[in-house]
Amino acid sequence: MVEGIIYRYRCGIAWRDLPEVFGPWQTVWRWHRRMAGDGTWDQAQRLLHELADRNGLVDWSVSVDSTIARAHQHATNVTRLKKGFIELQESADRAA
Known about the structure:
Number of strands: 2
Order of helices and strands: HHHEEH
Strand order of the largest sheet: 1-2
Shape: extended
Largest sheet: 2 strands, antiparallel
Number of helices: 4
Distance between the termini: 61 Å
Oligomer: single chain
């Protein structure tokens, strides 16, 4: 069960896409839900991190993603000068 839960986290897949080698996905999901609900999963993860860190098996390097998500020009609430006129980027009620 634990291997199935870890596999799902590592691959980022939906529970239904869990390979059959781990058993029925519903069973693995139920175990995860139970362990996450009562704090068992957090406690086990914390202990494993502590052990790995103590043995020098954890590299605490940080990775930063520089992906840019651009918003459409009308997604902002800023006034813009357009061809000599001020274009208000808000609702008509608030513009008055």
